[in-house]
Amino acid sequence: MTLALHLADIHKSFGSTQALRGADFSLRAGELHALLGENGAGKSTLMHIAAGLLRQERGEVRIHGQLLSAAAPKEAMRLGVGMVHQHFTSVPAFTVAENVALTARWQVSPQGMRRKVNELNRRFEIDLDPDAIAGQLPLVLLQRLEILKTLATGATVLLLDEPTGSLDEVESHRLLGLMRKLVSQGSAAVLITHKLDEALRFADSLTVLRQGEVTLTGKPAEFTPGLVARAMLGADLVSPLTRPVTTPGEPIVCARDLTVDPVGGNGPGLRNASFTIRAGEIVGVASVQGNGERELLRSLAGLLGPTSGYLTIQGSSGFVPEDRTAEGVISEFTLWENLTLGMSRDAEWIRHGFIDRAQARHATNAIIRQQGIKAENSDVPAGVLSGGNQQKLIIARALLMKPALIIAENPTRGLDVRAALEAGERLVLAARDNVAVIFYSSDLDELLGLCHRLLVLHRGRIHEASVGAGRDGIGRIMLSGAAATS
Amino acid sequence: MTLRSWRSGPVNSLILVLLASMSGLLVLAAGLIIFGYDAPAAFAALWRGAFGSWYALTSATLVRAVPLLLIGGGLTLAFRAGALNIGAEGQFYAGAIAATWIGLHLHGVSPVLAVTLLLLSSALAGALWIALPVLLRLRFGVLEVISTLLLNFVAEALVSLMVQGPLQEARHAYPQSDPIANEARLRFLPGTRLHWGFLLAVFICAALSFLIARTLWGFTLKAAGANPRTARISGRINVSRIIGIALLVSGALAGVAGGMEVGGVSYALYQNLSPGYGFTGIAVALLARLEPLAVIGTAILFAGLETGAGAMQREAGIPSIAVYVVESIIIIIVLLAEVAGRRRPAGVQASTSVLT
Q1: Which of A321, B149, B255, B321 has the most CB atoms around its CB within 10 Å?
Q2: pTM of the entire predicted model
Q3: A260 pairs with which residues across the strands?
Q4: pLDDT class for A483, splitting at 50, 70, 90?
């Protein structure tokens, strides 16, 4: 039987960096194949080569046995390869049907478009309203639209570049379930991801790339998570984090009947929440996105005013926003400027409203070294740092203010395994220093590993839970509130 | 276009502006030759009229640079904060009206006090003229680009009304005001027709530059302009307030420009007092890459081109409007260089010239 996709001995370099050094990759028909690796391991490069978007320097690409002769996306598409990119490529003002027709180059009437989209919907069980406006779709449906568009081009080999990167766990699993159905009908799909659990749970095979080389390939059942993690990270494996042993100190946050209206008028907001967070405690917030977690965290950070109820916080707080580039750093500002941004008057290099730039650079350089931030010096724009290094800067900045409370919104979102562990490690260290930590994560395992206890949100109501409740127990509260737990 | 990436190293910017200016002049030369004008004579006249003599430099070019310095300097502040004040022309006229009105009533007052009052009232008038757009923007989200632009027409109509109504000269013959009191006039620097407002304008540009580069307030202004959301969430900056203040200051400085024009040059109010200072001021600020210190150079450059244009018209019979073509070409080239520079990877762009 011929392979759906076969890449043999692929070499590719960008300037002086060798992105791929002799990578092999085989995808059988009817298979969901996870391609794992840290950021920069060469996953996307390899798949871009398969899709004809980049040309390898050595090695060959075969699609259903046929040789891909040049870097020609059209040729790859003709042979059946369709790539679903990480960023969305739909026209916001167009309907679902119009977007699909645009990509697939259908030249049919609006009724014809609708009919053909409904056909695809039925065949692949995608369930998208052909008349919905793309710009009004939630993230998860937008992601489905991308897949639908690729299927409409007649693709039999789907390459998905981190499709779950911006989705929470429940939505991710729904999407991966959909992928499983697709491959059960004979298509083949590659799932680029850095989320280990997804790969182990949903994929038929997995391949791990590290520094441009394949370090592991085979069936998920053959491997332990530890083995896969080591293949991704190399010998210097970062040990998985555990919550620090601390004795909770005095209460830092006291909330009684706290009610916060929803941001932008959508969702339930936060309803009558009462809870306490003590010094040295790590409290996790678990919820399906849009159940009030944003309102909870942002009201604690002082960015949203409560509608009713009481909220007292002893001491200052530091906030780590979810969207690093839109809210955490100013990309074109240098590192010292980004530190200045968060610290303002509290920075030691601000005196009487004047900036001592030499001192700012000096202090920032010290912080870069101390935090292990990979940057040449304090004059580098923050935009050139990787997500993990930006996050280190943001967390370090929050901690420099000596806050009593750290509020982190999905602090490991979009980070690769190592960077996520390092971000988590910093929260643990903060708690050891007697800072109260509250953080939301879309990764339940991360919450269960790091937190002392959890606040589970369902439709804006808070349910306290212990980490002992486990994945299933917590998941049940997230989906149906406390009533179903026992 | 956003204005946030409108910056680069000082040396590169200088080379770029010089090259762009040369290109603009080359295009002018080509045009003159094609249409059969005596190009060398025209350029000689342009040079003589702008920078060719001590008199031309100080009494024509630098005098004309004063409003451009004030308007251009003020606009760098607004643009850096992410606020697009396109209404400096109107704020200039508001300042001119206020200066004229108060200047007419200052007979017998001590000159220092009279000039101070004249400048303060023009600043206040300029700020008031932009207060409505500021309010509309902060309260209702009305784009200041539109509201400030539209108020230009209102200001021009108001000047027209004033010089034919309440402020018309005593004989009611001409559409202009009476000359303001001697006490309220800005004095000349020795040996020139240049009033000392020039020094004040240069000082203001230098002070703005210091404010933006070295103070925490200037830093928050840049942050608010570069990324308002990050500024608000991570910097806890009151972005609306910063934008409001930056707009008011730019309006006040444009008002002062109008006041100085009345107090130091025309001594009276009339229609078309400004040959488009408010718009040239935008070009001057952009060409200076929103760096107030560089505005000193670009304001003098454009003032020189425009005074030279007058000489070119008188001596070589070439319509002075030709110089606006040169100005436009300079702006277009600098804009193109900026776009080309932005296409590069961020790391490269930060360290290399935008020219190569």
Answers
A1: B255
A2: 0.78
A3: A270
A4: very low
